[in-house]
Amino acid sequence: MTDTRETELLAHVPDGLFIGGRWRAAQDGDELAVEDPATGEVVKRIASATVADGVAALDAAVEAFPAWAVTPARERAEILRRAFDLLQERKEDIALLMTIEMGKPLTEARGEVAYGGEFLRWFSEAAAHLQGRYGPNPEGTGRMIVTQHPVGPCFLITPWNFPLAMATRKIAPALAAGCTVVVKPASLTPLTTLAFARILEDAGVPPGVVNVVTTSSSGPVSEAIIRDPRLRKLSFTGSTQVGRLLLEQAAHGVLRTSMELGGNAPFVVFDDADLDRAVDGAMAAKFRNIGQACTAANRFLVHRPVADEFARRVTERVRALRTGRGTLDGVTIGPLIDDRAVRKTGELVDDAVRRGATLRTGGAPVDGPGTFYAATVLSDVRPGSAILAEEIFGPVLAIVPFDDEDEAVRLANDTEYGLVSYVYTQSLARGQRMIERLETGMMGLNVGVVSNAAAPFGGWKLSGLGREGGAEGIHEYLQTKYTLTADP
Ligand code: NAD
């Protein structure tokens, strides 16, 4: 049940599509229901865009592009900075909204507001520092000028697991670069994006520069936008399966694409690691966001001499976690996003146990309303178990022992993904070897959370294309022009 504060907050969240600076209903009046995964109750109904609405949003982005592209960078930067400030003012509301629609504990939702907000600040600074190059060509026969230009109208598709940060990580660099955008949040968690669009509106983003389409028809609405020849860029965060499909659609218009896809992160603990730190890191890397993060540690590879002790200590910590609605004090494990996620988590655990893993704690859905699965530890997970190959996306810590460094590297790289890897060792030489040997876009060395607005976030192999954040992030939304001028 939502309380009075929640009811008031939900009533203030816009329920329309945001197109060309106006909030409006879907053309056919269609709506979608947003549920609280901790209770299963519908908390709000909002507009569900048709294909025509999606195209109207692109029309608005196309129309707004020429003026926004030449708006002085300092002005674009100041709008982003105002959005950052407004987000700080409304951080409690945005955090609570995320907890209601997505389920993460409130303290983590506040953490996401802090993390997500940093992209606004970082890219407001980056906008004002964009530069080109000028210089003589090597032959001395001319001058080369290299300039950067916004790619054009962009389509940004975000997932449900980080409703704010995945939006700011795309919208902030796009706007900083001078692009206009159509944003399509996940239909499971659209409210945070709508509340954030209101912040952008209040911060002075001109009409049409940011447009939001919420829809329960993601496939057709997205495809119409992606196949429209006026679109110049697609940025997607979500599953590899959907990413592949969208890349096929994007091939038609030879779109610039950024793909932040799935992960299967190894968390490697060597026998020379500081075990206290490794256990702390494991808890963060595994149970943050109820395990529903692309960066979540999926496979705990532990050196055999410390494997038992590591399993004992994490099991003790996991037994002390508190499961419940994320708004309740002390709750560390919220609900999974839906029934499907509970079923899938259960299937992976059951398969691992059937193949010989030891179940140390948890191992079952939690009775009652909401979609909860108990925090779980499995040790001695056997090769061939599905849990080692697939993204778990649930609160399950699976331990596999290894005997030496070569085996650790082989197991860590034995995945089609390559988003992030975590390594715990006190040996500098070993740490350096692991940096060189692991096939991964990001690495946490003696640390369990790597995300930072100043860092290039992204993966190798099936984990995606491109980088978000850092100096690299804005270049995803810029295209290069080289001009040769005759010798003066
Ligand atoms: P998903 O692929 O099901 O959905 C992502 C988004 O795509 C949502 O907005 C959804 O509505 C939309 N979508 C679904 N089908 C579509 C279609 N046919 N056409 C267009 N859009 C479509 O993923 P999810 O379940 O929302 O998110 C979880 C996945 O996202 C995991 O695989 C996770 O690893 C990944 N993820 C990756 C990162 C990263 O930065 N690499 C970050 C967060 C999540």
Automatic annotation (TrEMBL):
Keywords from the named record: Oxidoreductase
CDD domains xrefs: ALDH_F5_SSADH_GabD
Domain of life: Bacteria
Domain Aldehyde dehydrogenase: 23-482
Keyword check for Oxidoreductase: yes
Active site: E260
Gene Ontology biological-process annotations: gamma-aminobutyric acid catabolic process
UniProt protein name: NAD-dependent succinate-semialdehyde dehydrogenase
Origin species: Cellulomonas composti
